[in-house]
């Protein structure tokens, strides 16, 4: 019989270990370490994400039970106190940079022409332990963090992310994220900042977002719309010349304003600097924004980011970075086989077989044998 390593070993094959070792050296992550290396920490956290372990005690017990199968992974079973210290102290930048390195392998098309790229921007909130209140919340009664993501809906992968306390505004983080010149950016009202819109437009980006109901625009001309469609009006407009009593609008170029009715009957005001494309194309681009909501829902339901293993900002950032690394590994592994179509089913089978000696292609369950037919079903009687 042919020998196989564990499924976890197969899933980890795309990991750029050479790049990882250089990142460990760059950030001094293993400096002075005696027990748990950064590699062992990473593998323990990936194992936790893929197996569904939700506590340090569970991680320690689960990995220790498979101690004899860790040799080929180059890892050791961690003690929960040592893992907790590593998550608190070891720089999260190692795992954030590793995510970007792995992303290039998960999505080789990222370097395609920027004019073809669509980027969705949004954030999701997560409740934290009250001990995280000092950095994660300005409120006394609660603590929370935000995961900010720039998402590629075509490849279904995040291309940039950041982690902040819940008191940080979305637009504050967006201004710190890199801008891909020529790409299409789609976002909602959390990023309502004309100066930021103008910075995107100045780099040749197409912007698709919403206008607030109380934002007044100056109509330059009306355009015809298809009767009976979801687009009710199509106008070339100018945004307000003044945002407040002492500030002029930094976005003075002509814009496209669409009034669109959605299936619920609600009317949206969609705005874009695209003056050429059909109105339906712009409306459809805004509709793709919901794909990032589906991504957040999938990650929260499938990976372990509802309960955190530490309370410090660094520990939360480490866990979220590794969760996104686990997402990329699952996506690469899922794409490497053709039998299991559902990503959720694939993730569940991975969880059940993670430390079994099998291959990614061996995850598919054998077809059920038909039940033996009775004499009545065969059409005759004994």
- The number of helical segments is 14
Q: Share of helix among residues? A: 25-40%
- The strand count comes to 11
SSE succession: HHHHHHEHEEHEHEEEEEEEHHHHH
State the separation between the terminal residues, measured CA to CA.
45 Å
Average predicted confidence as pLDDT: 85
Specify the overall morphology. Answer: elongated
Provide the structure class. alpha+beta
Rounded Rg: 25 Å
- Unreliable parts: 374-382
Please describe the biggest sheet, giving its number of strands, its sense, and whether it closes into a barrel: 9 strands, mixed
Major β-sheet strand ordering? 3-2-1-4-5-11-10-7-6
Describe this structure in words.
It is a single chain. The chain is α+β, with helices and mostly antiparallel strands and 382 residues long. Helix content is 37%, strand content 18%. The chain has a domain at 7-97 and 311-362. The protein contains 14 helices and 11 strands. Helix 3 (38-51) crosses helix 12 (313-335), helix 4 packs across helix 5 and helix 6 (93-106) runs parallel beside helix 12 (313-335). Residues 374-382 have low confidence and may be disordered.
């Amino acid at each position: 019989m042919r020998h196989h390593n564990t499924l976890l070993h197969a899933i980890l094959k795309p990991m750029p270990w050479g790049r990882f070792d250089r990142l460990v050296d760059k950030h001094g992550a293993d400096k002075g370490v005696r027990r748990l290396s950064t590699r062992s920490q990473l593998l323990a956290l990936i194992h936790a994400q893929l197996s569904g372990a939700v506590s340090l005690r569970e991680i320690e017990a689960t990995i220790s039970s498979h101690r004899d199968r860790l040799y080929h992974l180059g890892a050791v079973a961690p003690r929960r106190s040592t893992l907790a210290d590593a998550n608190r102290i070891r720089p999260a930048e190692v795992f954030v940079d590793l995510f970007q390195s792995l992303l290039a392998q998960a999505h080789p098309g990222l370097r395609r022409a920027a004019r073809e790229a669509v980027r969705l921007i949004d954030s999701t909130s997560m409740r934290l332990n009250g001990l995280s209140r000092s950095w994660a919340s300005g409120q006394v009664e609660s603590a929370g963090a935000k995961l900010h993501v720039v998402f590629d809906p075509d490849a279904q992968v995040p291309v940039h992310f950041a982690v902040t306390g819940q008191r940080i505004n979305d637009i504050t983080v967006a201004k710190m994220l890199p801008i891909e010149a020529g790409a299409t950016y789609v976002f909602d009202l959390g990023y309502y900042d004309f100066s930021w819109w103008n910075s995107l437009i100045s780099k040749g980006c197409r912007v698709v977002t919403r206008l607030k109901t109380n934002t007044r625009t100056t109509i330059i001309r009306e355009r015809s719309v298809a009767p009976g469609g979801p687009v009710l009006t199509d106008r070339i407009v100018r945004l307000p010349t003044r945002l407040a009593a002492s500030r002029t609008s930094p976005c003075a170029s002509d814009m496209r304003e669409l009034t669109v009715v959605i299936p619920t009957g609600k009317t949206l005001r969609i705005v874009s600097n695209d003056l050429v494309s059909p109105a339906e194309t712009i409306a459809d681009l805004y509709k793709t924004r919901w794909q990032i909501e589906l991504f957040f829902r999938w990650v929260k339901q499938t990976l372990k980011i509802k309960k955190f293993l530490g309370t410090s900002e660094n520990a939360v950032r480490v866990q979220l970075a590794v969760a996104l690394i686990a997402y990329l590994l699952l996506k690469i592994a899922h794409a490497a086989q053709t039998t299991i179509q559902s990503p959720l089913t694939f993730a569940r089978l991975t969880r059940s077989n993670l430390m079994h000696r099998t291959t990614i292609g061996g995850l598919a369950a054998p077809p059920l044998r038909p039940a033996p037919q009775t004499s009545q079903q065969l059409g005759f009687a004994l």
